[in-house]
Fold:
Amino acid sequence: MSRLYDTVEPAVIDEEMLKKAVEEQGPKEEAGKIAKQEGIDFGDVLSLRLDFLNILKIDNLWEFTKLTKLQLDNNIIEKIEGLESLVNLVWLDLSFNNIEVIDNLDSLTKLEDLTLYSNRISTIENMDSLLNLHVLSLGRNQLTDLENLRYLRRFKNLKTLNLSDNPFCKQDEYKQYVIAFLSNLEFLDYRLVDQQSRDAAIEKYQVSRDEMLHNEKQAEIKKEDETKRQQELEKHKNAYVELMNGPDLFEQMYAEDKEGQKLNEMPGLEDQLHSFKEKFMQICTQIFDFGIAEHEKREEEVKSFWECVEEAKQDNKRLGMVHIDEFTETKKRMLLEMSQMSDHKMVEQYARDYNDKIQVLWDKLMGLELQLVDQLEEVIKEFERNMQDMVGTFVENVQALLSQCRDLENNHHEKMMEIAIVTLEKVIKNELDDEISDDLKMLLVDKDTIINAVSSSHDVHLLKIDNKEDDIVTRINQSLKNLIEQIHQDEEITRNRMRVSEINNLIDHLREEMDNLEVMQN
Amino acid sequence: MDSSEMNEGEIHQIDSDDVIKEEDETENEEGEDLTEDAEALKAELAKIVVHPPSYEQSLMEEFDQAEFSPSYKDNLPKENLVLQYAENFRRQMVQLYRDRKPLFLNPVNECGVEKFVCTTIRPTLLEFKELYNWDGAAEFVADYLNIEPLKPEYELPKRLISPSTVLKRQKGNCFEYSTLLCSLLIGAGYDAYVISGYATKETCLADESRDICPLLKKKEEVQEEARKKEMKKYNVKPPRDLRSKFELKQEAKKEAEKQAEKEKQRKEEEERIAELEKPPPDPYFGLRIHAWVLVLSGKREVPENFFIEPFTGLSHPMDSSNYLGIESVWNNVNYWVNMQDCSEGVKGLSFDLGDSTVWEFMFPNNDKPLLKIPDAEDDLNDMDDDERKKYLDDEEHEVEKYLDMPPSWVDALKLSHRDFQMRCPHGKKTKVYKRAKLEKFAHYLMKDGLISRLSVYEDRELTDLMKVHEYYAHRSDKLTQKLTNHRTGQVCENFDPGRPRCLKEHQFKSSTPGPENERVMIFYHEARVDGLVKREETQTEMTEEYSNRDDFLFYKYVEFGKRAKKFGPQETSSANKGRPINKMIQKFHRNRNKPANEDIAEIIFHVAEDKIHISYHTEDVRIAASTREFLKPPNWDEKGAVLTFNPEMHQTFQVDPMLPMNKQVELYEMLMELLKAEEKCRNEVRDSQNEVRNILDDRTKEEAASELDISVYDTERNEKAKKHRRELERQQLEEKMRKQEMDIDYLAPFLAKIGNPEKLSKQQAFSLKEECLADLKQRLIDKANLIQARFEKESQELEKKQAWYQQNQVSMGKEDEEEYLTYCKEAIFRIHILDLRLTRHKEQAPHKYMQLEQKLRNDERLSEFF
Structure:
């Protein structure tokens, strides 16, 4: 800390201070004069310097959204705050302040250069999102723990680091430690890191460094796998058949079916259960494969649709541009001729011609637009029809397969019933050899109970299958509807309005130009 | 048994007596008395007087016999046998086919010795990689030799000179050409043959004036068919065509008629020209003898049979109309006679040399697959086993008796590197084609590096020059081609990469070579920092095209005004001052990192009107582009002036009316930027102008100097390398000399004294040894004496000096004293060294003596006596 606390009165960032700074640092000379007349938007300022102002608290900076460079050095700031909205910041200077904790920097993801020199920071932390960091200065702080430096390994782009004048610098191994564990560094404490010292440092910390690298690699692989899995699942979700390639549906059927679970413990049921599960799974896999294949087909369809639409739009655009270019050429020629004419009547005649030409251009451009609208409408209709057909087949097939599931379940139910009754009889006759759990015993008291239990289990299973079917069908129909609506909105309405307004804007401009010219000549 | 052997047999059976009988009959008729009729006939016949053509035995070039090896001057017994065999073959052929022209079998060689043609072929693979492929070898032979036409053109030559001599004298007739080429091709592994036959006059005389020069033939442009647009499912329907179908049809019809008319006219014209250009009828058509080369498919991945014309080095297809007939074909192992009808030229001839019904071979050891005759096979099958065995034995036995071809009598073909590079006799050759003349020069022959010049003429008499195409090599200014169009005066020069300003092509008018005139320069833009591809100039305009620039600039156009005329004294600097610029246009590619509305597509600097016009790129979804126009502040070109700005100076059209208006400051700054850009552009234009001027200056200098580059690997021509090599050789020689000196023979002088006898007697040996040892002793003593003498001399001198010092010590200055002291030091050092040397000599001398004695004892000349 370079100055005493109460010698100067602490200041706050206010409108006046900002205005002054902006004006001082804004454009110079003539441009400055113009800017002053017009006023400067804080939102347009790209760099701002607020140094030696005894600022205690960072505040009132939310307007500076485009700011890329901010200097707040040589103040008495104690806490990093109020910078959340400055997302475009690339350079931030907070040196010579009284900051104790690194904090509130998470939104500044574009930051490349951060200076916290001469503060009171004791731990490196809370910078996880600053992955673009190139330059970091943490000199003259209270850093004591060398281990803490491993935190900096996450910054792959970090090339320049300043840690001088920290307590841990007095340790002998400080330099080698830093070089060994941050081997991407090119400059450390104002000096170039040469290959020789890097090799030496790495050799010294070979073992722990290798271990660390290994751990990092493992973590990375794990993360990759995780993302891959997520992506896969996402893809399956888009195909509306997620988790159908596993025992998920089957397990779900039993998840809320406590009685069924109990009943499954009945002796002699194992084989039956096993074959039921296998068959069930087979159908699920069929649904999954079919779903993925259909999804790919739909994707292909959508892709080819967009390609064609894009092509048509490009062709149309090209034609439109040709017309405009032609007109521009004519305009140039006519204006040149007009400027050389002295006869008033002739000029008027020309002006009339010119206006006619503008009208012709408008006709042409509007014609093209109408043509495109027609073409697109037709294509979209066809696309809609095809997509609906495809979704229809998909739904039908899935329903058919799920009804097979239901059949399986029915079969299974019947078998269960038989076995249950047989078991019940055995229990009643006390012929049962195996031990059975108490829960099951509770069910095996009389015929009604056991039949009720089996039936309710069956109902739960059927319900699950129905739910799944509903889920798939609603989702696919909904998304198709959304897609079609989106296409209608974007391609037919928005695009058309935009183009028409563009054409009118252009024509208006051309007319205005002519009028101006006439006025000038008159 | 096959048919060829049967033929052979038949021929052998014919007795030569038949011929003699016929002759006898004619003699008998003469002896009879003449009837009246006969007298009348005689009188009638007497009227017919024929003069034998005053055929001069063309003086054959005489060769110095001494320079040939014996194989040229004499025949081996085997060769004689082959010659007899050939003679027999010839006789039989004459017998069987009386109307056939004689065969070319055994002409004399340069030493007047008869040699069989097959043995004249000497398969050779020379060390030049260009000769490994047939086209390279054929071109080389065509270039390297000069043509000697046959005399007379309808008779076989009497003499066939060996290919080695042909290579030496660099000229030959068609047979010698073919033999040489065939030697090279067989050496390179081709299945090649010499053909003796008949050809058209143009071919025989190598008259190519009716052919289009191969260099001028246009390469067939591979027209890539426009890729048909893939029909996709959702392709939009094109707008309906509202024009009348009928009218369109009528129009198309008319167009087609016109086209047909034109086509017809063109055809007629072509026919007319073809008629005009037809060669005049040749009285000797079909009689002109010619020899060329046949290459059969199979070896060296040759897919199809073809002919090579040795005079031109070009290949001809098997149905070429240039060749009219084939008599015989041979290579280095066999000789075949054509038995096929050649009334329609060589079209449709079979070249299956194994088929003895169409090709009569001379030696039965034919490596060609022979056609099997099924009858013989059947016979063989019918025979009993024993019989068959016997038969087969017979056959084998018979085969062994056959004569095979003796090795070639010709010396190995040799070609020096230098001669190969000279290509043509004296390094120059001129060929005449239809409306074109091609001159070839050896590399480094011409001072300016010219290697070939192709002149194209309007007419066939080669008087009306149209354009000249010159090819250069090894020029230090990297010029490779120069095309001068004499009609338009246009000159186009092509350069290799490596010039200082990366010039690739330069087109200009020869009448106005100076700067600020019409020209086109194309550059190697990959090598240029500014990525300039092309610069086109006219007198008032300059257009530049760029590629791959960081600032996306790809086009620049400048329009110049007229130089303001100055009166008064001419300043020297005014000439260098550029012309005033009226207008500059820069065009840029789209920079995807910027929004289209801020990405400038085109800037036009209206310099004369003080206006700047900007067009922006079109956004992807729009069809119109934003534009902006600035008026320059009135005092923009004053130095240090404060430039003012007011909103009137700016006009804009924004495609998207919803966008907020630019702030005045932004506009002001934009204007400042534009002014800077204009200045920069102006400077660049001036630089371009200077560059053009510099390039032109360089070209003028280079043309005047026209230096040639010599590769460091070219030991023949590179003077420096040559010097270096000589130096190395000299050093090596010295090294060798020194080595020789080292193991000098210590007995030599003593042996010389007694007259170097072959063998030494014991007496001599002893005295020799004694003498040698005595000599060494003497020398050792002499050396010791010498050292002692020097030692004494040094000591005396030192003493003298010391005495002198003692005397003059008082009067001496410090410098003299120092000098004396150093002298003393050195002298004592020298004395000490001499002392040491003497002691060492004394120690070593006996050892040396002993050593020599030992050596002498072991010397092989003396050892037997000791």
